[in-house]
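User: Hi! Is it possible to get a structure for several chains at once, not just one? Here's what I have:
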Amino acid sequence: MTRTATTADVIVRSLIDHGVDTVFGLPGVQTYPLFDAMSRSGIRIIGARHEQTVAYMAFGYAQATGRTGVYSVVPGPGFLNSSAALISAYGASAPVVCLTGEIPSKFIGRGLGHLHELPDQLATIRSLTKWAATVEHPGQASELTAQAFYHARQGRPRPTAIAVPWDVLAAPAPAPAGAGAVRPIPVRTPELDHAAVARAARLLAGASNPMIMVGGGARDAAAQVRELSRRLQAPVVSFRGAGHRRRCRPVRLHLRRRLPALGGHRRAARHRDPARACLVPLAGPARRAADGAHRHRPGAGGQARA
Amino acid sequence: MLIDIDQEQAVRLEPDVAVVADAREAAAALAGELDRSAGTSAGGKAEAGPQIGRPDRSAEFRALKEEMAREVRDVGDDLDYLAAIRAALPADGFFVEEICQAGFASYFGFDVHAPRQFITCGYQGTLGFGYPTSLGVKAAFPERPVVSIAGDGGFGFGIGELAAAVQYDLGVVAVVFNNNAFGNVLLDQQRLYAGRDVGARLHNPDFAAAAEAFGAAGYCVRSPEALEVALTKALADRRPAVIEVKTTIGAAAATPWKYLMPGWKSQP
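Assistant: Yes, the chains can be modeled jointly so their relative placement is included. Here is the combined structure:
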């Protein structure tokens, strides 16, 4: 028996093209075609008893591997149940893609009380993600799936989502999986501003007491951080266990696993000459650092800068 | 100065110099630029040594680190429990923190050997994230040990997922510090409201028995030494497991918050 390819098949083909080996998911009536397509694809499905769990699993997968974590839940309450995990992934700059459903196309926005209807699901999802879209017809599925993976990794990694209405997910797809599929979109890194690097180097060369604070964005830069710390004879500190210490010989200083905002820097710096401590935050102490920079900005020294 | 992939961070943090770039590329470029400028000022010696003329400060930093390790000792038992976990957890193992007293202490009191091995909920401080998140870590790395810590309150958010751990053979070892309370809240309330507390005390199951009812292994310990023994065994068994650590609320001589939040004592 031959099957007609559906929107769900197109999405699953895209998952495979993006190297997805595992989807954490809790199936429901709106997402049956997606789960059926995944089960035929060889993708490993890991389930749970609550939507929050599958989203947290994707978050843990992403944080541990550096790859994109993928989860799937039903729309409305199912999506909302996953929201604490989604916003944690947002805060921790973890690349996570949420695949969810949506009520049937012709019911969207009409307030008829369809199963799992939210007043404005896309607006709700967008308030918790970096990028989100509703797949309005099968022809968008490949493009929007690729966009979801692209935005999850481009620049600062963060969660994204696509929502597929019940009818669209099961609809025959005009471009069968394979032909016409949108390939993964390569992420770009900004062009290095050599003049800014030179300015920074001049500042640091004259700094008597530099310190390097690493954030989540430096997790893949341990070797480069080590080299920098050796040249500057600068200690390396972090929030919440960045784990560069062993790789930062000979300096190896890890004052505190997690320096709360820049206040932690202040605490650390206080032990030296606070007015001369210089800060080199590397790759994004997360937003808390920004909050902290203002909340804890010391009145009397402490956050001197390189 | 700031190196960040996110242009917006340069606006938020107002550094003197921002380099918007991949951390690897920018850090390497910065090191190269320091070498070049050192080479120029030192008379063109291109082969920069490891210190570009800066004296070796390793001993100074080591002493400072030891001094700070002594300073935080007053946090007490939680650091001993964390040391027991570190001793039992192999170097390639993952540690998943959680919102609990030991979790707060882990932010400065747990040795991390490599990036990505300390799994965190970040600034959200999402109570209950730990155990479910650890299952995703284990799914990604089934051959590497994963320890998830939690208090009794936070573990309660996801205790039902012991079923998923058994069903999918995700051999995470959960260490549950049980003080029968949302302990941080309870201590805050008592401190701020003349000793009163409300809504923060918890009734709990026998965690070891509950784990066994799900088909996981269950342990109960009362000391750091016993935790190290139980955790070593649980990790060797490679099965899903729960180790309950019986603790007493407020037993620590000092709160970890004094090391996490400058000005903590002056909080209302």
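The CA atoms of residues 261 and 267 of chain B lie 10 Å apart. The longest strand of chain B covers residues 146-151.

User: Great, thank you!
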